[in-house]
Write a structure and sequence with these properties.
By secondary structure, the chain is of the alpha/beta class. It has helices spanning about 20-40, 90-100, 155-160, 180-200, 205-210, 215-225, 285, 310-330, and strands spanning about 10-20, 45-55, 70, 110-115, 120, 135-140, 180, 230, 240, 255, 260-265, 270-275, 340. It contains eight helices and 13 strands. The strands form four sheets. Strands 7-4-1-2-3-13 form a six-stranded mixed β-sheet. It has a three-stranded mixed β-sheet with strand order 5-10-9.
């Protein structure tokens, strides 16, 4: 099924983006492993395709395991290190859609779900019928994306002038997780790319919008194109929850481990930790280590911010780590041959 014949139904084509760094490739191997696990679960047959959009100068070692489309990066220095590699993302996504316009087989479903590499699939995501235009596209409300913040009004109005409407038009979201129809992605991506470039060229916008500036660009693009998204919060979000900020999976299909978790005992001593920022060495891409599970639950455990670790949160984090470990166990060795669709 190609894009031309994939405008109806409930099936989902999942996308993620990466610059191919060890940090992201480690996360990608585990995330894609959990994706393959839920494909085999009840309802997983709706997850029909996956594409990693790689913005990198050369193919990388994951291409033998993860279906990939490679786009030459706007910033080749990001192949090794750069200050903000995510600024290349909207350009790479636009080039993927340009390629799909020429090769309809690149898109296999009516719903396109953009996710991040640091997600853990726990169950299949159920989508409505794409042809039902009353069904809105789900996105996620990030608390740190606040378009109405008076401190950033000036830079927001550079992108969304007053004549376009109030800043309440702009959702507090970002490009992932978002599930939209192909036509919606085609509408929003040019503005997303243009506004990201604008921010990178404007020192004031870069400073005030900070490390989430590309997320703001996407949110403004949604408003400019009048695309409405459903911003259900956990536990009602069908997309993600973010432990330890969220204590349960709720109705979500995935965990997002953006926040580190540290368990401390009554004496304030660290007894367990999981933080993605510790996994950056290139060796872990080839051989990801099994992750340590939390120790036996105790009622005096506290998080690094002093909040109590409830049994519910403990069980949630344990389930997430177990799912990640099962994906690690299931991994096949990386091969030397690397191929990918490229543009």
């Amino acid at each position: 099924m190609g894009a031309a014949s994939a405008s109806k139904g409930r099936s989902i084509h999942t996308l993620c983006t990466s610059n191919g760094s060890p940090y992201l490739n480690y996360q990608t191997r585990i995330m894609y492993g959990t994706y393959q696990m839920i494909q085999k679960a009840a309802g997983g047959d709706q997850h029909v395709a996956f594409t990693r959009i790689l913005h990198r100068s050369e193919p990388d070692s994951l291409m033998t395991q993860v279906p990939s489309f490679r786009a030459d990066p706007l910033t080749p220095a990001c192949d090794t290190w750069c200050e903000f590699p995510v600024s290349d993302r909207p350009n790479a996504v636009r080039r993927f859609f340009d390629a799909a316009a020429k090769d309809a087989t690149l898109i296999q479903a009516p719903w396109l779900l953009m996710i991040e590499t640091d997600y853990v699939w726990m169950k299949p995501l159920q989508a409505p019928q794409a042809e039902d235009m009353a069904a809105s596209s789900p996105a996620f409300p990030f608390g740190y994306i606040n378009p109405q913040n008076p401190n950033i009004e000036g830079v927001m109005r550079k992108m969304y002038p007053a004549e376009k409407g109030p800043l309440t038009d702009v959702p507090g979201s970002g490009p992932a997780p978002v599930m939209m129809r192909l036509a919606e992605w085609i509408k929003v991506t040019p503005d997303w790319e243009r506004l990201t470039a604008h921010i990178e060229a404007d020192p004031e916008s870069k400073e005030k919008l900070g490390w989430v500036r590309e997320m703001y660009a996407f949110s403004v693009a949604l408003a400019l194109q009048r695309i409405k998204v459903d911003l259900a919060k956990p536990p009602l979000s069908t997309l993600i929850t973010q432990p330890p900020a969220d204590a349960t999976l709720g109705q979500a299909a995935m965990f997002h481990y953006t926040w580190g978790s540290v368990f401390q005992n009554a004496q304030g001593e660290k007894v367990w930790e999981f933080d993605k920022r510790a996994y950056t060495d290139p060796s872990i891409v080839t051989t990801p280590p099994i992750l340590a599970l939390p120790p036996t639950f105790k009622t005096n455990f506290k998080l690094q911010d002093g909040k109590a670790v409830t049994q519910e949160l403990y069980d949630t984090l344990t389930a997430m780590i177990k799912q990640m470990n099962q994906a690690i166990v299931n991994l096949s060795p990386l091969k030397d041959t690397i191929t990918a669709t490229a543009a």
